Amino acid sequence: SRSGRRSCAARCAQQDPLLLRVARGEEAERTPVWLMRQAGRYMAAFREYSDRIGFRERSETSSIAIELSLQPWRAFQTDGVIMFSDILTPLPALGIEFDVIKGKGPRIDNPIDSMEAVRALRPMDDPLSRLPFVHETLSTLRSEIDGSGATLLGFIGTPWTLAAYSVEGKADRNCRRTKTMMFNNPAVLHALLEHLTEALIAYVGYQIEAGAQVVQLFDSWAHHLSPEQFAEFSMPYSERIIAAVRAKYPHVPLIFHANGAGGKHALLAQSTADVIGLDWECTMAGARQAIGSNRTLQGNVDPMVLFGTEDQIRKAVTRCLVEGGPRHHILNVGHGVIEGTPEESVGLFCELARQSADILAAH
Ligand code: CP3
C-alpha cells in the first residue's frame, strides 16, 4: 500500500501539498513546517476569542473553530493547518463530559473508576449527529485551503492518553489513579483502552471523510510509562488504530507523537506510523539512527527556544534541519507552543523552513 500511495501523487493532476507528500515519505523541494498548538493564547488574534468565549463553545462552534484554525496559517504561512479542537472533544459522545477551566486545564467530573463505568460507555456509533461541528469545521477548512499548498491535519489523543485523562479527571503529576488501576485492576484499564480504541478508529475515519489529509496521534502522557508499560498499555492500542485506518484509508499518512519517548526509541522504531514525532530530549541525529533513515521524523525544537534571541532560534532550527533532513523531515516544535511565545519568533521559525533548501545546501 506504501507504493500505491506514492504513485497517487503522479496520477493526480495537481500536485499534493508539501507536508502531505513528506508525511508519505516522498522527496520534496524543502522541509515543511507546522507547530503543535499553533493556535493559542500566544496570539493576540486568538485571545480576542479566548478572553470572551469558553473552550468548549469556541471549539464546538464551527465558525469560531475554523477562524482559530486559520489564524496561524494566515499569520505565519504554516504548511499544516490543524483543526482547532482538543483531544478530549470526542469524549462526551462516549458519555464522558469534560470542561476546560481557564488556567487549570481539562476537568472530568465523573472519572472512570470501575468496570461498570467502562461498560456504561457509549460506542462512537453516530459521530455526525454527536459531533457535527467536527465535520463542518474540517470540510470548510479543506475547501478554504485546497489549492494553496497547505495540508489539513486532523488529530486524536491515543487510547492511553485519553484513558489517563478519563481516570484521573485532571492532570496529575504522578498519574496516580491510572497507574494504581494499572497495577491493581489492569482488566478495567484494558477494557477502557479497548473501548477507546474502537471509538477512535471510528472517529479518525469520520475526520478523514470530512477532509483531514494527515492525522496525528498525540500520546501526550506517554512520559508516565516505562518502556515495558508503554509496550503493554499504549503502543498496541495506537498500532491498532494505525492498522485499521491504513487498511481503509491507505492514502492518509499518520503521525505518532509520544511525549517523553527518549527512552523508547527502540519501540518507536517498530511503530508502523508514517511519521514519528519527537520531543526535544533527543537529538534528531540520535533519533534518526535509532528509528531509521527511511521514516519521516517530525520535530523537535524546544518550544522555549522561541523565547530566545533571533540568533538562538536560527541556530536551534538550523541544527534541527541539518540533523533531521534533508529528506523525510517535518519541522515542528517538540511539544506545544507555549503561552507568551513572541509571535515574530513563530514567524521566523516558519520562515526558516521556507529557506531550508538554502540552509541545508550551506551545510
Ligand atoms: O494544535 C493546535 O493548534 C490545535 C488545537 C489543539 C488544542 N489542544 C487546543 C487547546 C490541540 C491539537 C490540542 C491537543 C491537546 N489537548 C493535547 C495534546 C498536545 C499536547 O500538549 O501534548 C493535550 C494533552 C490536550 C489537553 C488539554 N486541552 C490541555 C492540557 C489544555 C489546557 C492547556 C491550558 O493552557 O490551559 C487543553 C485546553 C486547550 N486545548 C487549549 C487550547 C488552545 C487552552 C485553553 C483555551 O484555549 O481556553
UniProtKB/TrEMBL annotation:
Q: Where in the cell is it found?
A: Plastid, Chloroplast
Q: What is its EC number?
A: 4.1.1.37
Q: Name one GO molecular function term.
A: uroporphyrinogen decarboxylase activity
Q: Which residues form a coiled coil?
A: none
Q: Where are the transmembrane segments?
A: none
Origin superkingdom: Eukaryota
| One of the GO BP terms on file | protoporphyrinogen IX biosynthetic process
One GO CC annotation: chloroplast
Q: Which UniProt keywords apply?
A: Decarboxylase, Lyase, Porphyrin biosynthesis
**Where would I find the Uroporphyrinogen decarboxylase (URO-D) domain in this sequence?**
32-41
Which reaction does this enzyme catalyse, per its entry? uroporphyrinogen III + 4 H(+) = coproporphyrinogen III + 4 CO2
Q: In which pathway does it act?
A: Porphyrin-containing compound metabolism; protoporphyrin-IX biosynthesis; coproporphyrinogen-III from 5-aminolevulinate: step 4/4
Relate the assembly described in the record: Homodimer.
Provide the family line.
Belongs to the uroporphyrinogen decarboxylase family.
- Function (record text): Catalyzes the decarboxylation of four acetate groups of uroporphyrinogen-III to yield coproporphyrinogen-III.
Recorded protein name is Uroporphyrinogen decarboxylase
State the covered range within the intact protein: 20 to 382 of 548
